[in-house]
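Structure in, sequence out. Go:
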């Protein structure tokens, strides 16, 4: 049985470096903005996903996961729990290797569906907190 800590480490070190950040916009007061900057500092390519499709941190934005014209490794979800399950399902549909639900984003049914599809997933964690711990 894989522990959550092992899954976190695997997503951050082995799943790939292209991270779609769902809910990322140019609103500097939102957590997604700072987390995306941290991911970039640690060598990840961020892909903003937001209805406005804004360019954020120098990266072209897309209105939805389905609009991204290249493979995505990890889908980092900054939407409320009520919307997050649909995003997890879309992540599986586009072939992402992992889904990451941010702090306070929790949907146990989506977690079960995503894991059953063979996709790594963590909930209620923040990669900007976890990635520096890797050392």
């Amino acid at each position: 049985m894989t522990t959550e800590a092992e899954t976190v480490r695997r997503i951050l070190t082995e799943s790939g470096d292209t991270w779609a950040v769902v809910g990322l916009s140019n609103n500097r007061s939102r957590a997604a903005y700072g987390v995306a900057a941290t991911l970039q500092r640690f060598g990840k390519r961020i892909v903003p996903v937001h209805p406005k499709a804004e360019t954020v941190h120098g990266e072209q934005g897309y209105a939805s996961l389905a609009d991204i014209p290249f493979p995505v490794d990890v889908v980092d979800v900054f939407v409320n729990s009520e919307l997050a399950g649909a995003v997890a399902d879309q992540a599986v549909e586009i072939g992402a290797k992992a889904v990451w639900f941010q702090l306070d984003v929790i949907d146990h049914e989506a977690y079960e569906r995503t894991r059953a599809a063979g996709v790594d997933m963590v909930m209620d964690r923040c990669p900007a907190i976890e990635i520096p711990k890797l050392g």
